[in-house]
Amino acid sequence: MDLAHNKEKSKQYRKRAEELVAQMTLEEKVEQTLYQAPAIERLGVKKYNWWNEALHGVARAGTATVFPQAIGLAATFDEDLLEEIGEAVSTEARAKFNMQQKGNDTDIYKGLTFWAPNVNIFRDPRWGRGHETFGEDPYLTSRLGVRYIEGLQGHDENYLKVAACAKHFAVHSGPESLRHEFNAEVNEQDLRETYLPAFKACVQEAAVETVMGAYNRTNGEPCCGSRRLLTDILREEWGFEGHVTSDCWAIKDFHEGHQVTCSALESVALAMNSGCDLNCGVLFTYLTQAVKEGLVEEKQLDEAVIRLFTSRMKLGVFDKKGENPYDDIPYTVVDSPEMRKLNEKVAERSVVLLKNKDNILPLKKSEIKTIGVIGPNANSRAALVGNYEGTASRYVTVLEGIQDYVGDDVRVLYSEGCHLYKDRTSGLAMENDREAEVRGVCEASDVVIAVMGLDATLEGEEGDTGNEYGSGDKPNLNLPGLQHDMIKVAKESGKPVILVLLSGSAMAINWEEEHLDAILQGWYPGAQGGTAIARILFGDANPEGKLPVTFYRTTEELPDFEDYSMKGRTYRYMKNEALYPFGYGLSYTEYVYRDAKFVSDGFDENDQIHFEIMVENKGSVDGTETVQVYVSAPGEDAPNPQLKKIAKVHLVAGESKVLKLSLGKEAFMLYNTEGKQELRNGTYKLYIGGQQPDNRSEQLTGKKAVSLELNI
């Protein structure tokens, strides 16, 4: 049994932590609740900085493998792959930690407590931090979050490989500009059905070691000082035994932004008494005064510090060198050829093929003499990496990937085309200063690849983005600046135009869908992204990604950004037809589903129902299909069919396989207005296929999902 699930072993670590904390003075205990925890030399406690990041690779601490951004990882719909990535990230994390410890380097981003993954729900495409998440669906987010955490924390029976963190708890998805004062109002049904399931799965299934509170208030309580969230639900209802950290400098928001307290002293008392153990910030220094004045009982402080040291014990940092198997991981595993190969594979599997008119893709190198590559993201490293990124030793942009792939056989012409969001590429130039060059490139080319979209300077975290929009959220879903105009210029050339969209969120590309020959959604594909996209463009890899978010047609159809009701949001509750639906993605081959049937008569003794389906690759190209199972519940007030199962199946051309699948009774249950789960009487439908069972998916693919009916 791995340590994360071994209660007895965890109790032993807690006992050691209790004995250690019992020897500390009040002031020493208070200092240990700060993210920059000082050494206590008389007790053999080394200095430790709790703040580290690993959203899609070890971040902000030098060279590491930069995997595709989290939203791109979500597009793989692949649980096994997410654990493989998590394992790779934690291997590099331990290797870097071992190296840093030898140099006595205990700076920020040098510890073993990683504040990832972000399992917030991407409820609105305008939210700047949405690309840090696994998309808009609670089930998909839960499954990928659990497996990424398991990869990070490892399966050793005595030690955690690293400590993962589920963030930001809870009901947190913008607006960024208001996060320090915003109150997210949510009803009990949406809370339980949408905003909490991924956190619950991370706690109860993955035994995540850390949970981070959010900046905002939820229903009036600041999340890092919410007794309901941190104590009633997290600890008492779900049985969480790890430690809780605040988001960074969130506790000062209690009195400065939310104004639910009158002073720093009151704020730290509220946070500690509500169940926040660690302060990313410095306000917990007031805990000494809070304890002396009776605002916080010392036993509450003791409990927080015990939890923190229990986590450090689990990581093995208090044990002798060599007792921990991870102490032997050498620095040479970082950025190794094996890591680069994995990174390229992940990037390939994250790309989503949105349009492929007349099967123009894959391109045939032998039939092309000149390729035109245009667009502000074509040769942009920033568009590869997203945010919370590490530093790669080599970046391969889309332009470089294409150049490397075709070599001297094909001429590649390039134009930046336009600035990412401004109306000129040079401050002294006239507006639209690259249009003539774009026309020249397109005229001389046999095919044009336009690489457009966003980067983390346009969508991201408040304080991190540095653009005229500010705060990180998108003002709308349009391509910014002159990008759309340059795509039109390319189309006017009469040459085939392929759009490669590098963005972390959905864009309203209605004109492009109607007029262009092919469209690839590449997300922020990581340091090897250009190589992966070139291989897909030329058919060395078969696209298998599926959309983890809905692509809407307009900004105007979205509900108010500040409204946290799920009504009209995401594929589960929207009424309008999507441009590209959640779960959608094309392939270079054709998959056919047939012979679906139940193989059990109702639910078995474990409340599971079993069914099977045949999946066949009818095309001439090998590929991997993402099998999606959706459940439709009876009742006019029921959500649209919801994703409840995913499975990946690799099929060589002409091969077919029978998949045996099962669903638990919980997959058929809905939450009522009181937030209680209920199993309704009536007819349920199971839809099985490579897509959602909605009309738009059928239009785009020409296929219907296979259905089964179940009476309950």
Radius of gyration: 26 Å
Main sheet, how many strands, which sense, barrel? 6 strands, mixed
User: What is the total tally of β strands?
Assistant: 23
CATH superfamily of the largest domain: Glycoside hydrolase, family 3, N-terminal domain
- How much helix, percentage-wise, in residues? 25-40%
Mean of residue pLDDT? Answer: 97
Low-confidence stretches: none
Instruction: Tell me the domain tally.
Output: 3
Class of the largest domain in CATH? Alpha Beta
Return the structural class: alpha/beta
Number of helices: 21
Strand content: 15-25%
Based on the coordinates given, report the CATH architecture of the largest domain.
Answer: Alpha-Beta Barrel
Distance separating the two termini = 37 Å
Briefly note the CATH topology name of the largest domain: TIM Barrel
How would you characterize the overall build of this protein?
It is a single chain. With 712 residues, this protein is an alpha/beta fold. The protein has 3 domains: 3-172 and 187-327, TIM Barrel, CATH 3.20.20; 337-548, Glycoside hydrolase family 3 C-terminal domain (Rossmann fold, 3-Layer(aba) Sandwich); 591-711, Immunoglobulins (Immunoglobulin-like). The protein is 29% helix and 17% strand. The chain has 21 helices and 23 strands. The strands form 7 sheets. The protein has a 6-stranded mixed β-sheet, with helices on both faces. Strands 18-17-22-23 form a 4-stranded antiparallel β-sheet, with no helix packed on it. Strands 3-5-8 form a 3-stranded parallel β-sheet. Helix 17 (483-492) links the parallel strand 12 (447-453) and strand 13. Helix 4 packs parallel to helix 5 (138-153), helix 5 runs parallel beside helix 7 and helix 13 crosses helix 19. The radius of gyration is 26 Å and the shape is globular. The two termini are 37 Å apart. The model has no long low-confidence stretch (mean pLDDT 97).
